[in-house]
Protein: glutathione transferase
Amino acid sequence: MSAQVHILGPQFSTFVRTVMLCCEEKGVSYSHGFSVNGEEVEYKGPEHLKLNPFGKVPVLIHGDRKLYETASICRYLDAQFEGPALQPEDVYQRALVDQWSAAISLYIDQAVVREYLLELAFPKGENGEVRWNKVSEAQPGVIKMLQVLQAQLGDADFICGEQYSIADALVTPMLDYLSNLPHAAELIAPDSTLSAYVGRMRQRPAAKTILTAMAR
Structure:
């Protein structure tokens, strides 16, 4: 049986993993990668730019429908397909999920992924070496974002209360990568509520074939 949707982008991308997590949570079958209908799509090439003029991933392809921007994709999946809801019914609680989805996609992604993790994963230093000065400069920003997340989490099970939501799907791949770093304890204290949260997210059935801790 063919997949219901295709996710354009590489599996290592945190945002691609977010969409995959939402599909898994909803029970939506999916394929992923840069091959669409048997044709390779060059990253930032002409066909990619037709799908997303900003040259970013992921892009969701659902029949003739194309969508970009991760949180928008996730909201579409939640509304379009049956399965557990990824957004609360209550208007205010739903707005909180939207708020945190935006904050994670903008501020937390910038500090954690763009300025920190990508420097470790795709070094830009001489001879492809990690620019450790850049990593050191970025680390306080990462710690600040983690403190913000821990304060929001409090004693709740999920980022926005007692229901798994799009906000959790957005932040979990980022925290999973951080938790796998050799110096992870410097960032997320092993006895913290945030560490316990990551452990819970990793144990969800939807996560077990996607997150790095489960795939290694």
Notes: The longest strand covers residues 5-8. The mean pLDDT is 95. The first helix runs from residue 14 to 26.
